[in-house]
Amino acid sequence: MTPLERALRERIRAEGAITVEAFMEACNSYYYSTRDPLGADGDFTTAPEISQMFGELVGAALADVWARASRPAVRYVELGPGRGTLASDALRVMRSAGLDPPVHFVETSDTLRAAQRHAVPGATWHQHIGDLPGDLPLLVVANEFLDALPIRQHVAGAERHVVAAGGGLAFDRDGEIVETSPARDAAVQAVAEGLVAIGGVALIIDYGHARSGPGDTLQAVKGHRFAAVLDQPGEQDLTSHVDFQRVAEVALTAGATVEGPAEQGAWLERLGIMPRARMLANGAPERAAEIETARARLCRPDQMGSLFKVLALRHPDWPTPAGL
What we know:
By secondary structure, the chain is an alpha/beta fold. Helix content is 41%, strand content 23%. The protein has 12 helices and 17 strands. The strands form 4 sheets. Strands 2, 3, 4, 5, 11, 15, 16 and 17 form an 8-stranded mixed sheet that branches. It has a 3-stranded antiparallel sheet with strand order 1-8-9. Strand 8 (161-165) and strand 9 form a beta hairpin. The longest helix is centred in the first third of the chain and has 17 residues, at 52-68. The model has no long low-confidence stretch (mean pLDDT 96).
């Protein structure tokens, strides 16, 4: 029994069944505060860790939209920036285009903050989106951020809970599941309202579905393999598919303009991942196969290319980011 499972069972004994939302929030809070989960030695690998091309193209897209917005003073913001790899790669490209913005990270994990501090010296950290400064337009990136925010599940109109059962944990009801996420809605609303108030764009990149619909998408990953959601609480990553239709609705209600979603593979191809891969391979022929494997993983429909999507939010007066 994990330390968190013991604490959850005690909580259930004292308070009664807990919601799926409370379970997911407790698990991910403990999980991210106690480890670096990324890479071969961790539990999962994100796009920026697969290849520098991902972060470089994000940086190119941001530099381009900034230039078309007449090159204003801006801030670079990343939500849940992992090890800082995406920011490091994106900022390198942005600087080559004449854009060197102050960097702001929204991150709650001290472990990951340490890695980010090494990758991007001089960044400023915040606990919450609402803590970000509101004086300059924002270039926001949220890559695999929304999927880790807690969700609610309902079965036939009743909220699903987690109960103690035998020697473990169990769900209190089964059936067709409808998922919602007030936490996700609040995050999107905060970003959209910030863009509307002071200008800028946000790129939301995550896995999920383009249209709202029922279904159980809550999943656990441990050691790069799927695992049972209720096993080993606090020792595996819990995520759910992002409902991009809902994200767009929340952003539109807040007054932002929405572009997309586009499939990640098609978006990267429109931004120029093929010529970038060839350039890298020409510069390091011994890595050509590795570079092509990474490009395929990011772009192929049977890998990350179709399941992962890109949605842009922007101030109505800002231009549409490239690739959308």
